[in-house]
Amino acid sequence: MTPDLDACAREPIHIPGSVQPHGVLLVIDPADEMVVAASANAADQLGAPPLSRRMPDLLEEGAEALRSTMASWGAGPSPSAQVRLGVNGGDFDGHLHRADGLTIIELEPVPEGEHLDLEMLYSDIGSFVDQMRRLSEPADLCRLAAEKIRQMSGYDRVLAYRFDRDLHGTVIAEDGNGILPAYLGRRFPASDIPAQARELYRRNRLRIIPDAFYTPVAIEPDRHPATGEPFDLSQSVLRSVSPVHVEYMRNMGTGASMSASIVVDNDLWGLISCHNSVPKRVPMQIRNAIQFIAQILSIQIAMNERGKEADERVAQKTILSRLLGHMAKGPDFAQALAAQPIDLLAQTDADSAAIAYDGRIVRIGSAPAEEDIARILAWMQENVREDVFATDELSSLIPGTERFADKASGLLAASISSLHPSYLMWFRAEVVRSVEWGGDPHKPTTAGPDRLHPRTSFEAWKEQVRNTSAPWKQTQIEAAAELRSAIITIVLRQAEERARLTGQLEATNKELESFSYSISHDLRAPFRHIVGYAELLRAQVPDLDEQATRYLDTITESAVSAGRLVDDLLRFSQLGRTSLQRMPVNLDKVVQESLRTLEEEIGDRQIDLQIGRLPEAIGDAALIRQVFYNLLSNAIKYTRQTQSPRIEISGWRDGNETHVRIADNGVGFDMAYVHKLFGVFQRLHHAEDFEGTGIGLAIVRRILERHGGRILAEAELGTGARFTLVLPDAKGTEDE
Amino acid sequence: MSDLRPILLVEDNPKDVELTLAALAKCQLANDIVVTRDGAEALDYLRGEGGYHNRPLGDPSVVLLDLKLPKVDGLEVLEKVKSDEHLRHVPIVMLTSSREESDLLRSYKLGVNAFVVKPVDFQEFFRAIQELGVFWGILNEPPPHVIRTPS
Q1: What DSSP element (H or E) covers B7?
Q2: Looking at per-residue confidence, does B69 or A589 come out higher?
Q3: Do A524 and B100 touch (CB under 8 A)?
Q4: Could you tell me which residue ranges the Response regulatory domain spans (chain B) (predicted)?
Q5: What CATH number does residue B50 fall under?
Q6: Cβ-nearest to A520 among B15, B19, B100
Q7: Are A527 and B126 an interchain contact pair (Cβ–Cβ within 8 Å)?
Q8: Fewer CB in 10 Å around end: N or C, chain A?
Q9: Candidate from A522, A536, A578 with C-beta closest to B101
Q10: What is the pTM of this model?
Q11: CB–CB of B125 and A578 under 8 A?
């Protein structure tokens, strides 16, 4: 049978209905100061049954102090006070507080003749504060407190626990006289202190059990006279504890205990836990002093932690601003971060990192392999909704990741895009630790026939913890969050900037388009008119002399060539806009067609055409035809002055590319100007030698570039030129 | 062969009008040539409306239509003609300065009968106009049912 651990957490320990027998509990109705309930030992201790008597009537001493204290409370939330009272010839330490509209007075008898040196207590506290100031580590502070507390109280052993994130308590400081076993470094599982007890510890800062072997004393009657509910004893100092707890104490070999809470930022940070082998009473004043020390200790720990945190934050801010500076410089934040590995890792004190963005994974330092990171990403995409996610035991979440625990047992991830699985990831290596538990944490309780029993063994139980990293601190998680929001801001800004530029570019393109459109209409017309009227004039005047005819011819020629220029320019500008229709193109055919179109230009010249078989190419047929037409037309043009002109066309495949070479033995050009060859309006020959608009090769290059291809030109002045064009099967990039 | 029906030239540029008329004159067509200077006027002529409500019956043998026109441009005229039940058989030749692919595509989509880019070279221009005039003005036989009667 598996013990029901929750049973412990369900026990209503704040309403036990009974108290420990070393004192008397009275419940007073503040309206008439009447005792409405009392612990069963009241009559014995006070000399007479107090029920239904007015409280002041019971008192020989302190009635006035009690009344004025209660009167001063007003409507405060949970007021409490201590008063020395005299009853039945004896002295009592009175502790009073309010609960559910009633006043609860707890009386602990002061042994006759007990004399406490308060001066001594004050100087103890004073020296504690003095010494404390020189310490900064929590363990050192706790050890000092443990020593002081043991010195003031006389317990056999004082332990200071610190709770970790999983609420396991580790003994970080200890002081003892050797009677009870030493527990320093030992860890006690979270289940030792059930949740509701933890909550009581947070609210009620000091508990004492002078005798673990006590018999509880019932409160009679056990119900609130107005509500009918059991009395809430959360703030009670005599409250009877859970039977499981005293059993636990007895199992630990302790006969008396006292514990004081260390509360930092309203959380139960740790406990000061005092034990004695035999039952032990500690006077209220000393308990007060100890509670005071625990409070000072809490404040000091909080201050130190905040100071440390502030230092860490300042350091992280410095790093963050450096990283921001680098990211702002370039267009690619991922590259910028990857280039600053030291800062990036220092930001969260990580061992390695990775940036998953835009389908890429950039690894920094000894990060896991890319496929392992991809697996983590897939898991996060599926399971993580938080912007920032941290674990120090990745393999407990993603089985199989223990394979690379040496690289990534800890993961801190910040999501930088909700659309794609884009994350900034930090990794921490495995830290193999040996934990010495106070007893086997996997067997915290045993089930008895009637109820749960706490474990009986507190023997050191060593466990090796694997596949975990050092835990991520809150400040480091926050640093990740800050870097995340900085990146998101930068990415967003860059996206906006890109959108703005794209918008501008589109507008400019549109403008350019309508500009070239109207040019194509309006600029061509005047040239047409010039030619037209020149011809009309020629027809009108039949007997023009030679010079007049030459003038008219020149007018016509000039206008025609200007018109061609406009046409070529427009064709060039259209190239950037029309979309490519890619398909297999038979280049043999293309060459034949081009040559046929150029027949007129060849005229009766004898050109030696060497045309090899050409491979197929993939591309836009019309545009490729234009390329061949332009190149062949050039070859024909520039061999005009050559004795025996020759044009060679050859082609071959290289990988996924088709290469075609068109070589001629014409005038060639000077390679010094090859960089100008493919520019718009760049001519390497005089216009009177070779006609043309100077756009042909620019068109060729643009067409090839749009196909993701290229063109090479080689030449020697006077001996010929050689153009090699390359067309890839699949397009690389297309500037559309 | 039917009676010679007029050729409708829609052209806003007076120089182009003069040059086109000169070219058409050269091929000695007997057809009348009606010139309208914008798209709206051309539509009026074709529909026998506005300033043309008294014109003799019958559709032109061909419309030589410039693309860029004031008021209603060439493509709009084309669209209106080709979507008009009574007019859509009238052959329309787009005459344009533009080499714009988009204009060409749209014209064919709208059902143009021919698309001619006006060449800069005047001889070519003459040849083109003359061929158009001869083909559409004389040789092309209109469908028999198209002789419109006044409603």
Answers
A1: strand B7-10
A2: A589
A3: no
A4: 6-133
A5: 3.40.50.2300
A6: B100
A7: no
A8: N
A9: A578
A10: 0.56
A11: no
